[in-house]
Amino acid sequence: MSVKNVLQAIHDALDEEMARDDRVIILGQDVGLRGGVFRATEGLIARYGEKRVIDTPLTESAIVGVAIGASIGGYRPIAEIQFADFIWPAMDQIVSEAARMRYRSHGTWGCPLVIRTPYGAGIHGGLYHSQSIEATFAHVPGLKVVTPSTPRDAKGLLKSAIRDPDPVLFLEHKRTYRLVKDEVPDDDYTIPIGKAEIKRSGHDLTVLTYGMMVHETLKAADAVAADDISVEVVDLRTVSPLDKPTILESVRRTHKVMIVHEDSLTGGLGGELAGIIASEAFDTLDGPIIRVAAPDAPATPFNGKLEEIYLPNAEKIEQAIRDLAAY
Do 10 and 159 have their domain in common? Predict the structure, then answer.
């Protein structure tokens, strides 16, 4: 075991998978000589060469389109979109082509493609470097959407994504990159896509969350524990497919549930989760389904004070926990 941050864990996963399978290639803007804007691919071009670590023009539709073609041609491409905010020009390629490849070919063709991209706010990135895009893509059948919160999860899930026979959108919360550290196994391991993890056990209420909000929720759970409020924190880890058995089992055990995500409230993943719980576990609830999320504003403010007001945080989550626990 070694202590790593999220960025180091992602780099290690890329390195190990490229060494294991020479079909794995990386392409994207500045992924080669610069090593990526966050240095996730640093040193890989020197180790594997420019035919496997490919610098591309700043054209997201081409990055994803070429990666789709490479996947059909027998490669295992990893396409990096420099920031999640820039993914929209590739929307048609992702939704109409990659996600539907297996369905449209009656199972004849897969599309073993990983699209990595940093998402989320909290680093004063402003409106074009802070977007949360997971709810949009979780709506797309045929596309897996992964949202790890820890270095161990990031490495194990990325290795699973690279080995998956179908497309995976791998979302890395940029605030966790260097902030979150954890012990990571040194040996080869994977974590199954579609399996949530209980990061903290509790019996008074369940909080469902993912990404950076896992850490804010754990802080809130620590704070309310001093008043004997026991919170179970479920890290979804994958938002498509959702791990319904783990979600429902936790809700049925605690009888109260809160959903926390950084994305805006309306149309966010919390609505889908609330729908699942209302349909399949309503008779076990002892209180309303509560959602804590960002407001329905067009974008995350650049100003640090406004960004703090905009984003969910441990204090806001703590207050919502106390309110729900009082029902």
Answer: yes
